[in-house]
Design a protein that fits this description.
The protein is α/β, with parallel strands linked by helices. The protein folds into 2 domains: about 5-55, Urease, subunit C, domain 1 (Roll), CATH 2.30.40; about 60-190, Metal-dependent hydrolases (TIM Barrel), CATH 3.20.20.140. Helix content is about 25%, strand content about 25%. It has 5 helices and 10 strands. Strands 1, 2, 3, 4, 5 and 10 form a 6-stranded mixed β-sheet that branches. The protein is elongated and about 70 Å long. The protein starts with a strand and ends with a strand.
């Protein structure tokens, strides 16, 4: 019977995130769990020679502007190139959802200024297969990614839904909408599904990155 690990990262310098000193060690992975750290004697179905590299826990990028990129690209670069395994979007209180069809152009122009992404890129790239925030999360969940995506679900009331002059009735509706939003979970996690498609070190809890 073959008792191999799924992956063994060998000869790297391990920084485990606990504050302990760096140490040279191998890291063995079975499924989605780190099975062994140290001198690993058993072989791996996949092996990586990490000599001269740091092996660290996957980094969490807490402030990104991938709100548009995640709708058209499965590779969330450059973060996934640099050991990031979870990226958060929706940080700045504005985003692409919720958004009604007649307000898309206005929101593209707004986000062009906020995100500094050319209007033509947003116009041609955004699939707009959502209106509500829940639709947006469903659209993201349908895509494969090379890292996990966390989306804030408590942004400010979207400017595309609150751009008209705030009459008394509209203010009441906006307040009710904001209160419903605050009662919902704070984060929506869209996990990477590349782990079911092809080998990738970013699917694991440890990632080998080049020494700076």
């Amino acid at each position: 019977m073959d008792h191999r690990f799924d992956l063994v990262i060998r000869n790297g310098t391990v920084l485990d995130g606990t504050g302990s000193e760096p140490r040279d060690a191998d890291v063995a992975i079975s499924g989605t769990h780190i099975a062994e750290v140290g001198k690993v004697s058993r072989r791996g179905t996949e092996e990586i020679d990490a000599k001269g590299m740091l092996v660290t826990p996957g980094f969490v990028d807490l402030h990104t502007h991938y709100d548009a990129q995640v709708t058209w690209s499965s590779e969330i670069t450059p973060s996934s190139w640099n050991g990031v395994t979870t990226a958060m979007i929706g940080n700045c209180g504005v985003g692409f959802a919720p958004c009604r069809p007649e307000q898309r152009d206005m929101l593209v122009k707004l986000m062009e200024g906020v995100e500094d992404i050319p209007e033509v890129v947003l116009t041609e790239g955004l699939p707009w297969n959502w209106e509500s925030f829940e639709d947006y999360l469903d659209a993201l969940e349908a895509r494969p990614y090379d890292l996990d995506v966390v989306c804030r679900t408590r942004p400010c009331v979207s400017s595309s839904w609150a751009s008209a002059a705030p009459t008394a009735n509209r203010q009441t509706r906006m307040t009710a909408h904001a209160w419903r939003r605050w009662q919902q979970p704070a984060l929506g996690l869209v996990p990477s599904v590349f782990r079911h498609r092809e080998p990738s070190t970013t699917r694991h809890s440890m990632a080998a990155t080049y020494r700076p």
